[in-house]
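User: My instructor asked us to take a sequence, write out its structure as tokens, and then describe one feature of it. I'm not sure where to start. Here is the sequence I was given:
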Amino acid sequence: MSEWWTYTLSDIQSFSVHSYYRLFELYNRAIWPAQILALALGIAILVLLRRAEPWRGRAITVLLAACWLWVAVVFLAHRYATLTWSARYFAWGFGVEAALLLWTALRGRLIFERRLAGLAIFLAALVVAPLSGPLVGRTWRQVEVFGVAPDPTAVATLGILLLAAGRVRWELVAVPLLWCAVSGATLLSMHAPDAGIPIAAVVLGLSVAVSRALARRRRT
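Assistant: Let's start with the prediction itself. The structure tokens for your sequence are:
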């Protein structure tokens, strides 16, 4: 492992797209009906975004932290690790994001505003992504759901963080962007038809974040 920088995506990926989709099918079967609870959490976040209570920022961030911790432990460390050794590193990354979100919640640092781009990204991850699964080569049993699967959780979190007022929270945005890039590259290497979803999230999310950061710099 002393020459980790020499590894390519083909070294990390030792499975086919069929095996990858099958992994989600077995995972979804094992955790059912956790998907319903996860979608309920997503709807709860959407409702909280429309409320004006001062504690809503903490509540939303805690819910996101819980989702990241679930994916880190239940999916990446215990399921995805059966396909690739790199999953344990991804699990640590998701755990770090969960810790950062929880720390941010405890400090009460996030205040959310209504921004079209961020809300669109969140709704795409919560609703559009699972519904479009059969259109991009997955069966209904193989779709990824926000809160319990990595891609929609990362994309939805990215959308929520882009709704935060003030400066762009790069320390929170970095891991979702990095995961979407890695996931998109992995799916692309397998010629998966849904590879464009996480890649589009990276492009759109990074574009919005950079434009906001530049606009804030010009104002100050």
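For the description part of your assignment, you could build on this observation: Residues 1-7 have pLDDT under 50 and may be disordered. Try explaining in your own words what that tells you about the chain.
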